[in-house]
Amino acid sequence: MKKTLPHLIFNSAEVYSMEHDYAKSHGGSSFMLMERAGEAVFRKILEIKPDVKTVFIFAGSGNNGGDGYIAARLLLERGIDVSLFATSPARANSEAETAYKRYLAAGGRVYTSLPSESANADIVVDALLGTGLKSDIRAPYDRFIEFINKLNAIKISIDVPSGLNADTGVVSSDCVIADYTLCMLALKTGLFTADAVDYTGEVSYESLSFDTLPYYKKLSADEGGPYLPCLNRYYENIIEDLPLRLKSANKGDCGKILIIAGAFGMGGASMLCGIGALRGGGGLIKIATDARNFSAINAYAPELMTVDFDNASELGKALSWADVVAIGPGLTQNERATYLFDMVTKFDKCVVYDADALNLMAATKNFNFLQKKILTPHPGEAARLLNTTVEKIHDDRFDACYRLWQKYGGVVLLKGAGTIVCDGVHLTLINEGSPAMASGGMGDLLTGLIASLLAQGASLNTAAVVGCCVHGRAGLMCGSDNGVIGTKAGDLALYIRRLVNGF
């Protein structure tokens, strides 16, 4: 379960710039990078199946295909039965053509038609399309992809599965369903979000001895540039940002949190939010909710204090008392909810907006751009906030998250497969999560967890990123231990407790 991928991540335009700069400094050629990539594919094949007997490689006409030709040559020289099927000849006067000619010189053969449907191999390598795909798959690539997916073999995609948009993670038509994706030179933004998680399999990385750090620094310094630098975050690389607790600490030192949530009949949302705050380490938690929820909350977790959100005097005192406010889970969008929302927009400390609070923000256009806040929309809420469709949000989640930040300020956390966080300085991709988390209440738990991290002194961005990583890893662990079907939000609570303690 431990992850070791790099923490820097780039889009295809940035990767193209890297390749261009490499070629410029190496006599106009990037063939050495292609050679290293092909060698990496060869090693990966032997790592996955040391006793491999037969390999099919499906190659396109571009650089991705060139990587495939080099891997095929090395397999051939190793005495392994390799068959290479090409969509079309390698592009003339290209590095791919050089790789193609060397493969032929080593005794290799290139087939221009697909093998019979009864044919099979131990391992199949997808070297059809690389990072440049921006449209639907066209012939003959559609037939090749369909054939690859029918094969009963281990499938390795080079760089990205063919058919996947390397920037957005969107699949618009056909796409190879890989067991392994071997990413070259730099991690691509589209590998971990949107549709990608259903196609990439296990993602690994080869740097090709290329240093991407200068490009990250350049992006960070270029405030007027077209792209924000992007970070890849998962539990192992946020451990140092977990809250610390002094031996002398008391409950007041660990933060006071007010959760405004839970209309009558929706009290469970307030409870899950409260449990997220408790297990995340918050010192004192009050829930402002419908008074009819009190007895259920007290029975569920007596550590949670309650306030009647219809009592203006008590609510005002609770707001003055709190270090952090979380608002929205199960709140509904009635007149009372609007009144509560309006009160919180004037709060001069940190606020986490979720669920119905986001819907109210979209509907009323009432928000304080400069307020210290975190917005936690799922795609439907994001679409309402931007007055667009869920499909448009899905088409480019990075752009949607950035536009939400531009419009609303603070820190924006766009939930979904491959959650994205934007603080206006960085985009951060959260490389955690599990299909076990596809059930109600998970977002309520996350809101409470993030509020607890804020209350313990984390910055807005750190609270959002660390909260998402802990929450996603908790879901992964819970699903691994108990199965991904039938998991409920409350099941994650004890895993969250373990993870915020660093184990």
Automatic annotation (TrEMBL):
UniProt keywords, alphabetically: ATP-binding, Isomerase, Lyase, Metal-binding, Multifunctional enzyme, NAD, NADP, Nucleotide-binding, Potassium
Cofactor note (record): Binds 1 potassium ion per subunit.
Binding site for (6S)-NADPHX: 63-67, 130-136, 141, 159, 269, 330, 378, 444
Cofactor: Mg(2+); K(+)
EC number of the protein: 4.2.1.136, 5.1.99.6
Domain (YjeF C-terminal): residue spans on this chain: 234-503
GO molecular function, one term: ATP binding
Gene Ontology biological process terms from the UniProt entry: metabolite repair; nicotinamide nucleotide metabolic process
InterPro entries: CARKD, Nnr, Ribokinase-like, YjeF_N_dom, YjeF_N_dom_sf
Catalysed reaction, written as an equation: (6R)-NADPHX = (6S)-NADPHX; (6R)-NADHX = (6S)-NADHX; (6S)-NADPHX + ADP = AMP + phosphate + NADPH + H(+); (6S)-NADHX + ADP = AMP + phosphate + NADH + H(+)
Pfam family of the protein (one): YjeF_N
Residues that coordinate or bind AMP: K415, G416, A417, G418, T419, G443
Domain YjeF N-terminal: 15-216
Annotated binding of K(+), by residue: N64, D126, S162
Taxonomic superkingdom: Bacteria
Oligomer status and interactors: Homotetramer.
Family: Belongs to the NnrE/AIBP family.
Role according to the record: Catalyzes the epimerization of the S- and R-forms of NAD(P)HX, a damaged form of NAD(P)H that is a result of enzymatic or heat-dependent hydration. This is a prerequisite for the S-specific NAD(P)H-hydrate dehydratase to allow the repair of both epimers of NAD(P)HX.
The name this protein goes by in its record: Bifunctional NAD(P)H-hydrate repair enzyme
Organism (species): Anaerobiospirillum thomasii
